[in-house]
Design brief:
This protein has 172 residues and is an alpha+beta fold. The protein has a single domain, classed as Protein Transport Mog1p, Chain A. It has three helices and ten strands. The protein has helices at residues 2-21, 80-89, 154-167; strands at residues 23-27, 32-36, 40-47, 53-60, 66-74, 97-106, 110-118, 122-131, 139-149, 169-170. The chain has a seven-stranded antiparallel beta sheet with strand order 3-4-5-9-8-7-6, sandwiched between helices. It has a three-stranded antiparallel beta sheet with strand order 1-2-10.
């Protein structure tokens, strides 16, 4: 009976941990994975007909935060600063004014930067990545855009934003 009780506790604990951890979204076509917490819901996934851009959208269940992940596939390497400039100026994305400068994050096969943005409607943190090595003749750029309503206390969601962003991995 004691062994059965211990087994039950272990199984219950494992199930609780899995529920808390959420799920991993892996896209082998665009070479990335990211961990999405359980308290988030996938809203949509849209890919272009050319299969060169895909957008994933997620909402935190309490409505305080959204995530838009856009992955781009290219046949040539892209300059990270040019990529960022293009996205910041894209009227369809409607990115607010940047607050402060960029912070660099680099890895073995990529260069990255992130910055905070703000206007009267929202606070945003956007992460940008561009691969520096090819993967079967393909290069990738990514944008992770976290958007919080202007009424949301940014400090309340900052840890979660960083945790999700840190889980983003480029898969070569």
């Amino acid at each position: 009976m004691k062994k059965l009780l211990i087994l039950f506790v272990i199984l219950f604990s494992a199930a609780a941990m899995m529920a808390q951890n959420g799920k991993t979204v892996t896209d082998n076509h665009y070479k990335f994975s990211i961990n999405i917490p359980a308290k988030w819901t996938a809203r949509s996934t849209v890919e272009t007909n050319k299969k060169d851009v895909i957008t994933y959208s997620f909402d935190r269940n309490d409505g305080k935060l959204t995530l838009s992940l856009i992955a781009f596939k290219f046949v040539e390497a892209r300059n990270l600063d040019d990529f960022i400039y293009t996205l910041e100026k894209d009227f369809n994305l409607n990115i607010p004014e940047k607050v402060g400068g960029y912070t660099e994050t680099n890895g073995e096969n990529y260069k990255g930067k992130w910055a905070d943005y703000k206007d009267n409607d929202s606070h945003e943190r956007i992460y940008y990545y561009a691969t520096t090595a090819d993967s079967g003749g393909e290069y990738f750029c990514y944008m992770l855009r976290f958007i919080a309503d202007a009424k949301t206390n940014v400090n309340d969601v900052k840890t979660e934003v960083v945790t999700i962003a840190d889980s983003f991995k480029i898969k070569f």
